[in-house]
Input
Amino acid sequence: MSPETRAMQTDDTANPGMLAVLDGEALWRAKAGPAGRSCADCHGDARITMRGVAARYPAWNAARGTPVGLAGQIDICRADRQGISAWPAESRERLAVTAYVAHQSRGMPISPPGDPEMAAARERGGRLFTARMGQLDLACAACHDDNWGKRLGGTPIPQAHPVGYPIYRLEWQAVGSLQRRLRNCLSGVRAEPFPYDAPELIELEAFLMQRAAGLPIETPAVRP
Output
């Protein structure tokens, strides 16, 4: 990350991702659904109750028997507690609430859960990370393990540590999710992207979070 981008990220008055966080705060307090219930009605002050939550996701959802990401858990809460449907993937609202919740963990170390179900999910994600895909026959590891620090199209190749999602990407001129970034990479190697919220994307996210264990959450991060 360039010094200019780092300065933009660390200054909340200059970080464009903070607009999504502010939108998320308003949505956190907004009542919705047949019961007229807000996120705050159940969870209270997010600055306290959501502290550290993003550092533990994806996590195992026993009721559904599957791993879920942070945005997926928000969808579940909307359905189970508010009686309303999930926001569309990459919608302003879904990204905003996810960014607001994740922002409460800024500075905390990523701490993936240790339950065996998530260990199995991370193992599947790891296999996907090293699997060659697409017409270019490349794996995620070919860039982010073997060639990180080099440049691709003038842009430094990162180690794929998902520490700041949802992030504001200057390329997008918008806030976006890790799933959007992963789908971009799949398109880049000319592979068919997995649908949003597909198990493969959740498992890959779980693996990447394990690789980044101990690194601090930066949401909302800013990247080129």
Remarks:
- Strands lie at 59-61, 66-68, 151-152, 155-156, 167-169, 174-176, 222-223.
- The first strand starts at residue 59 and ends at 61.
- The two ends are 8 Å apart (CA to CA).
